[in-house]
Design goal:
- By secondary structure, the chain is an alpha/beta fold.
- It has a single domain, classed as Divalent-metal-dependent TIM barrel enzymes (TIM Barrel), CATH 3.20.20.
- It is built from ten helices and ten strands.
- The strands form two sheets. It has an eight-stranded parallel β-barrel, surrounded by six helices.
- Helix 2 packs parallel to helix 3 and helix 4 runs parallel beside helix 6.
- The longest helix is centred in the C-terminal third of the chain and has 23 residues.
- It is globular and about 50 Å long.
């Protein structure tokens, strides 16, 4: 398994919605961080929209990644046919093997047959460009519907970007999600979480922790994926929430969290 850095590991340093630092981290800085962490893949997600970069930037990013021995992957949020086409072109410039698409609630309202009809030509285009499309199980897209979509298209260049925690939001426990989607998995997002009871007994909250410090069944998950290619990329992320320390406090915690996550991931994947 090839360990990689997901751009969401630097959610706050890059900036998101109304939380944007004075000097946001760019795609080249993410690449530098991955190299310093000893990782061999970078996956740029929708929080680092590469369509805002020029074609020259794309080529320069690939060249710098090549010099560092790092493979590049990319991704978008929600299915939009024109955007997927645009990102497949960008992926070709980056020589990417994986393009991740995160389906969400709006996509869940589209008939599977309609979504499949729009996806098929994009999968063909991905194949022609040497890529596979990996659909991520995101917060509000249920895994049974994902399986139906994948079985409907039935193409070896379309699979799952399996996230070990996202589908809790879709009323699925992680073991249930993983068992359903493992046969289709071609890309893995690894993160950890904890469930903390409210001190007054008013429910609980699900929140992120560095890898290996929470409830995510990491070793069991990797066991379920033994059938996957040995060079499958494992993209490291975390759910570091912003707190009373604000944006600056969250940014200060990101590097220690990802360093702990990388160290734990190397132990979990040793020998796999």
């Amino acid at each position: 398994m090839k360990l990689g850095l997901g751009s969401y590991a630097y959610r706050w340093s890059i900036g998101i919605k109304d939380q944007v630092p004075a000097r946001p981290m760019d795609a080249f800085a993410v690449l530098e961080r991955a190299d310093a962490l000893g990782l061999t893949v970078v996956q740029y997600a929708d929080n680092m929209p590469l369509d805002r970069y020029t074609e020259a930037d794309h080529h320069r990013l690939f060249e710098q990644a090549q010099q560092k021995g790092i493979a590049l992957e990319l991704g978008t949020q929600c299915f939009d046919a024109d955007e997927v086409d645009r990102y497949l072109d960008i992926g070709q410039r980056l020589h990417a093997k994986i393009m991740r698409v995160a389906l969400d609630e709006a996509d869940g309202h589209m008939e599977v047959s309609e979504l499949a009809e729009q996806l098929r030509p994009r999968v063909d285009k991905a194949r022609a460009k040497g890529m596979k499309i990996a659909i991520e199980n995101h917060f509000n897209y249920p895994s049974p519907r994902m399986v139906e979509l994948l079985d409907t298209i039935n193409d070896d260049h379309l699979g799952v970007c399996l996230d070990v925690a996202n589908s809790i939001c879709a009323n699925e426990w992680p073991e249930e999600t993983i068992q359903m989607l493992a046969p289709y998995t071609i890309n893995l997002h690894l993160k950890d979480y904890e469930i903390t009871p409210d001190p007054y007994g008013v429910g609980f909250r699900v929140h992120g922790v560095p890898l290996g410090q929470g409830r995510a069944p990491i070793a069991w998950t990797l066991d379920q994926l033994k059938h996957c290619p040995p060079d499958m990329s494992v993209i490291l992320e975390h759910w570091l929430m912003i707190d009373e320390t604000g944006l600056d406090g969250a940014i200060a915690k990101e590097q220690p969290w990802i360093e702990q996550t990388v160290a734990a991931a190397k132990e979990f994947t040793k020998g796999r």
